[in-house]
């Protein structure tokens, strides 16, 4: 049906809609509903609320020889709107914390009533070494029994009589669970001298003063180094060093006389007599 401007009346209803009424068409009033007014779009949703710098979980070791740890405080924690989050549970990081796991909770609330939560786990472990360091052969070790293997424990090495230490005499348990030095070795003082080749024989006495006599085989004679002492070399357990080096003990003889280069009948007897002379001298 077509309507002219003369017979159409616009009526604004209380509901806000507009009705078009045509008047006097064949004695009837006809109502035509106008299209509804479009609704405005809803306001945009606010961005999500989150904790943007939640502190990471961490493990803290106790100090040397201690059974608790003071954990450094966290930096300020903020939400996604740059508002300060509040710690709602957990220990105060300025306090000493015992060994174990501790949980800290941070909470943020915005104007819409929403909440964001983050949790940080802190583990406190006692700094200790996995076990006592080894005991060197021909030696011993002594540690503080109160500390056992806690960080800070000191252990001291010692060697048996007639043995000398090669390495550090003490070690310390570090906070990373390792010992500060390797186990030393206890080496025998005045170890048997070694002579190059098979050109002679070395006969030695025991401790505490070791005396060795180098006896050359037929066709060989004492080196210039050993000939000054008549073939004798000495080592005191207090010093642990030989008076001469026996490695080049016997060299090819420049003499043809067999009696000079032949070994003595009883070198051990000569050593015993020399020891007696030394004892008389002391």
From TrEMBL:
Which region is the signal sequence? 1-23
Query: What domain of life is recorded for the organism?
Result: Eukaryota
Which residue stretches belong to region Disordered?
31-52
Q: Which residues form the HYR domain?
A: 43-126
Kindly list the cysteine pairs connected by disulfide bridges.
159-186
Task: Write down the Pfam families for this protein, in alphabetical order.
Answer: HYR, Sushi
Keywords attached to this entry: Disulfide bond, Repeat, Signal, Sushi
Regions of compositional bias (Pro residues) in chain numbering:
37-49
The residues covered by the Sushi domain are 127-188
Specify the protein name.
Uncharacterized protein LOC106155925 isoform X2
User: Which species is this record about?
Assistant: Lingula anatina
The UniProt gene name for this protein comes to: LOC106155925
């Amino acid at each position: 049906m077509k309507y002219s401007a003369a017979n159409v009346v616009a009526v604004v209803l209380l509901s806000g809609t507009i009705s078009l009424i045509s008047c006097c068409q064949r004695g009837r009033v006809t109502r035509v509903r106008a299209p509804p007014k479009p609704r405005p779009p809803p306001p945009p949703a606010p961005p999500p609320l989150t904790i943007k710098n939640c502190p990471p979980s961490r493990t803290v070791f106790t100090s040397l020889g201690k059974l608790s740890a003071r954990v450094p405080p966290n930096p300020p924690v903020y939400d996604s709107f740059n508002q300060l989050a509040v710690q709602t549970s957990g220990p105060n990081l300025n306090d000493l914390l015992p060994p174990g796991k501790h949980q800290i909770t941070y909470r943020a609330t915005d104007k819409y009533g929403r909440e964001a939560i983050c949790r940080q786990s802190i583990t406190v472990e006692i700094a200790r070494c996995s076990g006592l360091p080894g005991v060197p052969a021909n030696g011993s070790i002594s540690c503080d029994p109160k500390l056992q293997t806690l960080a800070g424990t000191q252990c001291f090495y010692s060697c048996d009589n007639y043995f000398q230490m090669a390495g550090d005499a003490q070690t310390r348990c570090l906070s990373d669970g390792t010992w500060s030095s390797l186990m030393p070795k206890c080496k025998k003082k005045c170890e048997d001298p070694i002579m190059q080749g098979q050109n002679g024989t070395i006969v030695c006495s025991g401790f505490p003063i070791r005396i060795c006599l180098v006896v050359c085989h037929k066709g060989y004679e004492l080196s210039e180094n050993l000939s000054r002492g008549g073939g004798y070399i000495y080592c005191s357990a207090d010093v642990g060093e030989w008076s001469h080096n026996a490695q080049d003990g016997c060299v090819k003889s420049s003499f043809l006389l067999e009696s000079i280069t032949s070994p003595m009948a009883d070198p051990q007897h000569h050593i015993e007599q020399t020891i007696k002379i030394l004892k008389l001298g002391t």
